[in-house]
């Protein structure tokens, strides 16, 4: 699989996740927010009074494992670095923060799995 295909698949998955979240009433604030070359947050959204940082993983099938398996300890550390950077740069106060994961399986008729509170921040 080419890197270009993986990037396109990832972008499609993020758009599916964004639409899913909007349908649930989330307000999307940012998409693909970069803190540094190695620290990015796929989606930042408001869920009522909570600020939610969301990592999206997309797979066309489960041949290479479940999408959540790609959210490794190292990936979480990078996300926490980006969360810290975001909070330093933005003054708005929120009652709470959380880190969620969304798995997109398939792209034609995708199955969406949403795990809340992968890590409380």
Sum this structure up briefly:
The chain contains two helices and five strands. With 121 residues, it is of the alpha+beta class.
Can you describe this structure?
24% of the residues are buried. The longest helix has 21 residues, at 3-23. A hairpin with a 2-residue loop joins strand 1 (27-36) and strand 2. Strands 1-2-3-4-5 form a five-stranded mixed beta sheet. By secondary structure, the chain is of the alpha+beta class. It has a single domain (3-120), classed as Trna Endonuclease, Chain: A, domain 1. Helices cover 31% and strands 40% of the residues. The chain starts with a helix and ends with a strand.
The whole-number mean of residue pLDDT values reads 89
The gyration radius over C-alpha positions equals: 14 Å
The CATH class label is Alpha Beta
**Percent of residues in helices:** 25-40%
CATH architecture: 3-Layer(aba) Sandwich
Which stretches are low in confidence, meaning pLDDT under 50 for 5 or more residues running? none
Proportion of beta-strand residues: 35-45%
- In whole angstroms, the N-to-C terminal distance is 35 Å
Given the structure, what is the number of helices? 2
Write down the domain tally.
1
> Outline, from the CA principal axes?
globular
Number of strands: 5
CATH topology: Trna Endonuclease, Chain: A, domain 1
* Strand order, largest beta sheet: 1-2-3-4-5
Question: Describe the biggest sheet?
Answer: 5 strands, mixed
Q: Specify the structural class.
A: alpha+beta
| SSE succession | HEEEHEE
Task: Please describe the topology of this protein.
Layout: H1 3-23, E1 27-36, E2 39-47, E3 50-59, H2 73-89, E4 96-105, E5 111-120
């Amino acid at each position: 699989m080419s890197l270009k295909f993986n990037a396109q698949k990832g972008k499609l998955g993020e758009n599916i996740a964004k639409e899913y979240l909007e349908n649930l009433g989330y307000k999307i604030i940012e998409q693909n927010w970069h803190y540094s070359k190695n620290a990015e947050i796929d989606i930042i959204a408001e869920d009522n009074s909570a600020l939610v940082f969301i990592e999206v993983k997309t797979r066309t099938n489960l041949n290479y494992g479940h999408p959540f398996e790609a959210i490794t300890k190292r990936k979480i550390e990078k996300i926490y670095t980006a969360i810290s950077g975001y909070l330093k740069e933005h003054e708005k106060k929120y009652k709470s923060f959380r880190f969620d994961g969304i798995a997109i399986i398939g792209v034609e008729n995708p199955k969406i799995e949403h795990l809340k509170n992968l890590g409380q921040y």
